[in-house]
Known about the structure:
Blueprint: E1 4-8, H1 13-24, E2 28-33, H2 42-50, E3 55-58, H3 64-73, E4 76-81, H4 88-93, H5 95-116, E5 120-126, H6 149-167, E6 172-178, E7 180-182, H7 201-209, E8 216-219, E9 231-232, E10 234-236, H8 237-250, E11 257-262, E12 268-269, H9 270-281, E13 287-290, E14 299-300, H10 305-311, H11 319-332
Parallel strand pairs: 1-2, 1-4, 2-3, 4-5, 5-6, 6-11, 7-10, 8-13, 9-14
Antiparallel strand pairs: 9-12
Helix pairs in contact: 1-2, 1-8, 3-5, 5-6, 7-9, 7-11, 9-11
Amino acid sequence: MKKKVLITGGAGFIGSHTYINLVSAGYTAVILDNLSNSNPCILDRLESITNTKPELIIGNINDAALLEETFSKHNFSAVIHFAGLKAVGESVEKPLDYYNNNISGTLCLLSAMQKAKVKTLIFSSSATVYGNAESSPLKENHPRSATSPYGRSKLIVENILEDLSFSDPTWNIACLRYFNPVGAHPSGLIGEDPKGTPNNLMPYIAQVAVGRRSSLSVFGGDYNTPDGTCRRDYIHVVDLAEGHVAALNYYNSNSGLITVNLGTGSGVSVLQVIEKFEEASGVKINYSITSRRSGDVAECWADPTLAKQRLGWVARRSIEDMCKDTWNWQSKNPTGLSDQQ
């Protein structure tokens, strides 16, 4: 019998790619999403890729009654928890929204899981819990801090999960700290489709390339890096999705709490990303270098050794793959899914 997994936020960028990998790995997956940052037409596209019609439950993780009904209806073996607000700048403007959704929502989910005796959780954490780290690569035991309500919400949830695991060792919890997810499914049917102005580099470049935006602002060209621009650890979203399946499979023969970085282990600069995207798309990217952005550090990338040791997982796709797949998605969907029903 196939194991059934609940994916909160499963209609979003990372969640939808993880759905595909779960199905291909033999799992049955149910999506819970309020569609605040996704489009319901994603379900038809997931069905086209997997030949499996996704089951979608529309709702919020703060809805205790809905969660109780969902867990009573389905015999879940695990939960992958993506649902959360994720824009750093917005979190500074709306901290209560972020604490209510990301922290209170997770508490509500954990209570429902405990009541239903579903005690395996894969949590979508973030490299933001390392704060403004001044050196890379970052290991999991690096001191944690946060510079925004978004980062604090991830850090607080990590602390909650550590306390829960300590109080009840029968919980199996994986905290997966992402670095910079980019790319798209190679089919071009699904990809990153931010609503409004993109907060991240790659979708912004893609929208410039496709003509939706006139130019890109590069924040700072005077950092102590080879070309003066910030270097980050970009990871292909399909590699990231495979990391979640690896974490689930880990609990077939292991137990307890693990915290691992999911990254490539190397940094790529902003100007390098632009250059690689130009090569992939054949389009010249219009950009200008402006003043530094507050809070940015020069370099930040993962030490992914532990993920390889514990999960048997490594990132396999290159920055060229990330740019090629992003362009394939964006060029086939120049306005994203905004005009799809």
